From TrEMBL:
Keyword Membrane: no
Organism whose genome encodes this protein: Desulfobulbus propionicus (strain ATCC 33891 / DSM 2032 / VKM B-1956 / 1pr3)
Protein name from the UniProt record: Dissimilatory sulfite reductase alpha subunit
GO biological process: sulfate assimilation
Keyword tags: 4Fe-4S, Iron, Iron-sulfur, Metal-binding, Oxidoreductase
Enzyme class at the top of the EC tree: oxidoreductase
């Protein structure tokens, strides 16, 4: 395939940062279709429109997801990308690969595709970028039979669940995010591979409130680790931080190499608490835990002095998404605390998930994420369906509707009697 002139793309190779343009030019030495990738993208830059057609229906037998169809709308000009389908490979929990597994995956992609990969983007899966339709079935056969791996999710289905490193590497983990991620991935294979939802649905599991997988912003169902009791305080360690002990660097020594001056607990911790629930009494740090929102700032700054409580579990947040129909939105906190019990296969979490699905599949519109359905129909209705009692934390803003509505069972004696009494009193 001919090399294309790419003056616009060449600009992206200038400057201090690595460039995908350079990578694709190197890849083109063994995979000539990469020149056509660059040529088509250069044309898109000139025309200011994409030259990928809608993917249509393409995939492997028995699966409705896992393959994202890509066809060029200028195939005679760029025959190397006439077909350029994306294959999603389900990732292991916490993205723990062996070098043997990675080499096998790369060999597979050299054999059947362009050799271009994306790992790991916001979708969670490992992405194989660019293959022809006739290569999909043999690629799938080798992937599942030789590597014992599966395709990830795409389309209006459950997307491949993803999680943080959890207990395996993180001392702040409040539940086993990898175990939950693996358990629910195994449980919901059918929902991953056979689209049946109004639109996509994502689980993400963060084992602590630092939320290292950004579940609260990117998933329809976020399970974020938390604790119910008080933050544990080592007062002696607090004094070590205040004294500037070299063995107790703030932020765990993350800012080594730059002199930030003497640690100031008032300025760097207490004044930055979002609810102002911390203060010093003499030499002791005090925390009003009832006001703590688990932002993790104080724990991150003084990790040897402060730790999460011992009564651990998770917060469930529902409804985050990127801007598709109605703008980006964060998830809504629905359950402030739930225990995450692996011994019963996380049945409490499973019950919540399936309540959400049952309601959303009944009332959701086509291509409407669950957060948009909640927004359209209203949080009070959603909470009622989920059998969750409303609480102040569910209030987004003061209401502007002057009307008040009650259900009949909420009014002692029935609303009809109250209306009659009201009319009698005001008849004059």
């Amino acid at each position: 395939m001919a090399k294309h002139e790419t003056p616009l793309l060449d600009e992206l190779e200038k400057g201090p940062w690595p460039s995908f343009v350079t990578d694709l030019k190197q890849q083109a030495a063994t995979k000539p279709e990469c020149w056509d990738i660059l040529g088509q993208l250069e044309l898109s830059y000139k025309d200011r429109i994409t030259h990928w057609k809608h993917g249509g229906i393409v995939g492997v037998f028995g699966y409705g997801g896992g393959i994202v169809g890509r066809y060029s709308d200028v195939p005679t000009q760029f025959p190397g990308v006439e077909h350029f389908h994306t294959v999603r490979i389900a990732q292991p929990s916490g993205l723990y690969y062996t070098t043997e597994n990675l080499r096998a995956l790369m060999d597979l992609w050299e054999k059947y595709g362009s050799g271009v990969t994306n790992l790991h983007g916001s979708t969670g899966d490992m992405i194989f970028l660019g293959t022809r339709t006739e290569n999909l079935e043999p690629l799938f056969w080798d992937l599942t039979h030789d590597l014992n791996q599966d395709l990830g999710g795409s389309g209006s289905n459950l997307r491949t669940p993803s999680c943080c490193l959890g207990d395996s590497r993180c001392e702040w983990a409040c539940y086993d995010a990898q175990e939950m991620c693996n358990s629910l991935t195994q449980r919901y294979q059918d929902e991953i591979h056979r689209p049946a939802f109004p639109y996509k649905f994502k689980f993400k599991f963060s084992a602590c409130p630092n939320d290292c997988v950004a579940a609260i912003a990117r998933s329809d169902f976020a399970v974020i680790g938390t604790w119910k009791d008080n933050i544990r305080i080592d007062q002696a360690a607090v004094q070590k931080y205040i004294a500037g002990d070299a063995a107790y660097p703030s932020n765990g020594g993350a800012h080594k190499g730059r002199d930030w001056g003497k640690f100031d607990i008032q300025k760097e911790v207490i004044d930055l608490c979002p609810t102002q629930c911390m203060w010093m009494e003499g030499n002791e740090l005090k925390i009003d835990d009832a006001e703590c929102t688990r932002c993790m700032h104080c724990i991150n700054v003084m990790p040897r002095a402060l730790r999460p409580g011992v009564e651990k579990g998770a917060t469930i947040c529902i409804g985050a998404k990127a801007p598709i129909l109605d703008g980006a939105q964060f998830a809504t906190m629905v359950i402030p605390f739930i225990e995450c019990n692996a011994e019963n296969d996380f049945e409490e979490i499973v019950d919540m998930i399936e309540k959400v699905w049952d309601w959303w599949m009944e009332v959701g519109k086509n291509r409407e994420r669950v957060g948009e359905t909640m927004q359209r129909i209203g949080l009070p209705t959603f909470l009622s369906v989920m059998e969750v009692e409303p609480m102040p934390q569910h209030v987004k803003e003061p209401r502007s509707n002057p009307y008040v509505f009650w259900k009949e069972e909420e009014v002692p004696g029935g609303w009809e009697r109250d209306v009659v009494e009201f009319r009698k009193r005001h008849a004059a």
